[in-house]
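Hi U.,

Before I forget, here's the chain from the pilot set. I'm dumping it here mostly so it's searchable later in email.
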Amino acid sequence: MFENFLGTDLGYLPGLRLAGRVPGDWTDEPYSRFSVTPVAPTIGAVVEGVDLSQAIDDELYQQLNRALLEWKVLFFRDQDLDADQQMAAAAHWGQIEAHPFYGAASNFGGPRAEIQTLEKGHATTGNENMWHTDVTWRETPSLGAILRAIEVPPVGGDTLWADTGAAYECMAPELKERIEGRTAIHDWINSFGLAMTEEDRNRLRPDFPPVEHPIVRTHPETGRKTLFVNRFFTQHIVGLDQDESDHLLDLLYYQATFPEYQCRWKWRSGDVAFWDNRATQHYASSDYYPQRRIMERVTICGDRPY
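Structure:
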């Protein structure tokens, strides 16, 4: 039932490589400090020739940021990073934010609120297996995140990313018209809040109230329009009754699920992924229970969507 309404033009996809990668006025320049190998046509690339444990100079930063804007998620193999080096690399893109619901978890770089340890195994199953964009319940959702793999299962535990710019661009014109100028409410209460006591929810609520964001945001660096709703945190569309809102949101959520907009990464210990949270959704495949999977994430403060 979705396909006819969404009208996703799969015939458009052969031309999506350039349209999906970069804004219209992009100047395609070679990278002189590293090589870039695409993982998929519109999203995801492996960067070779960069050691993230070393200092990032201004030229390297500029080229890495250009690659991030072009490919939206960058992968680095065989990185020997500790927590301090991971934070130092991320800090080139902005202030590191602490996650209020993870807190100062005990992690492999020492307990600190700026690093979230995501440890799964026989006692804790993965629950990130839903397409989402991180912390959209913040007034200023994150710019992006750097995730490093500490221990991975022998099979499974892949992460997928979706290009939300391509998802919007390939949307049926009728659906674009329905969401033009509309906003939606984002909240943590029905995700993180479900695992909290009522006392904790009441304590955190004044600092993190529901927030309103545009359904289609404009990327602040590229100017590209990207779809900005997700199943984890979007609650309802402002101005619509709940049934109509739920139906429309289901259509929008479905739009990010096409493989043509996605890349998939098979982790090895020592891998690092750096993604643009303003232009992507991601999905951590929870298919490895009871094997262990240990990751650490550093999140970079962003700006208010518009």
